[in-house]
Amino acid sequence: MSDQFSELLDIPRDFVRDGTQFMNRCTKPDKREFIKISQAVGVGFVVMGAIGYIVKLVHIPVNNILVA
User: Can you tell me whether residue 5 is helix, strand or coil?
Assistant: First the structure.
């Protein structure tokens, strides 16, 4: 019974230990890395917007043909 209780307490303890190790290992990005990440995110937004716009342009005439 005591062994099961200690195993149950080990789970949150291991989680907290792993979390603190992860946070201590993390660093803030420098300016160059931040700009690179921002550009990648911006390109992703533009690509996804273009895909959505193209799908919308194709969907409207197809929908009119099917409904009419």
Answer: helix
For residue 66, give the DSSP letter: H
pLDDT tens string 41-60: 999 999 999 999 999 999 99
Rounded to the nearest 5 degrees, what angle is found at the Cα of 53, between the Cα atoms of 61 and 68? 15
Q: Residue 37 contacts by C-beta under 8 Å, 6 or more apart in sequence?
A: 29
Determine contact, residues 37/29, Cβ cutoff 8 Å.
yes
CA separation for the pair 47, 45 (Å, rounded)? 6
pLDDT of residue 18: 94
Q: What is the DSSP letter of 15?
A: H
Residues 6+ positions from 29 with CB-CB distance below 8 Å: 37
